[in-house]
Amino acid sequence: MTWSALTKKQQQMVFATVILAGVQIFILAYFLGWMSPSNSPGGSAKEELNALQEKLDEARNVLGRSEIIAKGLEESIAKLEALEIYTPRRSDRYAWAYEYVSLRATRAGIELDNLEEILFLGDDKTKSANAPYEISVLTQCGYNDLIEFLWRLERGNMLLRIKEIEITRLPDTSLRQQVRIAVQWPGTLEIKRGTAK
Amino acid sequence: MGSAGSFGNRRAGGGYAATENQKTLDLLEQWTQGGRAPMYTVLRAVQMEIPPQMQFSTLFAGIREEDEVPKGSYYILRLNGRAQGELVAVEAKRKLNTDAEVRGFCGEVRLISSQREVGDSWTFALEGRRRAGGAQ
């Protein structure tokens, strides 16, 4: 059978069938990703997958760093909490310091004449908050008792600092002296706990 | 991505807190080191090195802000008193300077005044000072 033997209607049907087959092949190729990936829905899915993978990697990275930071924070909090017991409590510093000093004075056989809080006289609140906490101790005692008292004060608290000591001879006796001691602790021990957890 | 944002904020907060805590720890370490020996060891050393012919009327030991150049904080040991014998204060100065605790605290001790009071009785003043944070 030749092309010329077909009627015009048959020719038109064959032509339409060929066109339809071509269109079906094109559509099939498009959805199977045989064509350029950027122009097909399958390629778009790959790109999206790659983007998601990148975000996942980034999140893993952030998570890793976060664990390191959290560990460092926990360690620093533990160290500061261990030191916190050596500083006067912010709410009632004088009573805390009084108890600490008075107890050691008694053990050293010393009677305290006065224990006074030295207040920071300034307008700068930041400086005031960071200033060391200081008390002044007045007593009359012998030199050996004084050394024992200082030993008990300094050995019992790693953050206590004797800022200065002034010993003045009393006119009527050589067994005891007038003693003034300035004792300091760090002003603030603020522990930052972060916002995590 | 609301959850990622809040996660990032928490991470940043934890990092800030850890850094601030480390700063506090460094300051406390500086505070405890202080560049000097405990005060009881200094006073014990002074007691051991002062000869029996000497009596002090005042003793000061501590850290003070001084206006002298260079301005700053100084560890100071100052002794004033009376000695029986002209060179007793010189001998005391020599002995104090051989003591590691004393030198570590205030550097070299100097005899800054010596004056006959009556007969063989002399008044004296000894002083050592070292800049805080500086070389001993």
Folded structure, characterized:
The complex is a heterodimer of chains A (197) and B (136). Chain A has 197 residues and is α+β, with helices and mostly antiparallel strands. Chain A is 52% helix and 17% strand. Chain A has helices spanning 8-31, 41-84, 93-107, 125-130, 143-156, and strands spanning 112-118, 133-141, 161-169, 177-185. In chain A, strands 1-2-4-3 form a four-stranded antiparallel β-sheet. The longest helix of chain A is centred in the first third of the chain and has 44 residues, at 41-84. The two termini of chain A are 85 Å apart. The mean pLDDT of chain A is 86. Chain B is α+β, with helices and mostly antiparallel strands and 136 residues long. Chain B is elongated and about 75 Å long. Chain A binds chain B through residues 59, 62, 65-66, 69-70, 72-73, 76-77, 79-80, 83, 143, 146-148, 150-151, 154-155, 158-159, 161-169, 174, 182, 186, 189-196, and chain B through 4, 7-11, 13-18, 20-22, 24-25, 27-28, 31-32, 34, 38-40, 43-44, 47, 55-64, 81.
- What distance lies between the first and last C-alpha atoms of chain A, to the nearest angstrom? 85 Å
Determine the fraction of residues in helical runs of chain A and give it as a percent range: 40-55%
Dominant shape of chain B: elongated
Largest sheet of chain B: 4 strands, antiparallel
Amount of helix of chain B: 40-55%
Order of strands across the widest beta sheet of chain A?
1-2-4-3
What is the CA-based Rg of chain A, rounded? Answer: 43 Å
* Anisotropy-based shape of chain A: rod-shaped
**Structural class by helix and strand composition of chain A:** alpha+beta
The residue-averaged pLDDT of chain B reads 85
Using a beta-carbon cutoff below 8 angstroms, give the protein chain pair with the largest interface and the number of residues from each chain. A-B, 43 and 39 residues
Q: Summarize the main sheet of chain A.
A: 4 strands, antiparallel
SSE order of chain B: HHEEHHEE
What is the tally of helical segments of chain B? 4
Order of helices and strands of chain A: HHHEHEHEE
If you compute it from the alpha carbons, what radius of gyration of chain B comes out, rounded to the nearest whole angstrom?
A: 24 Å
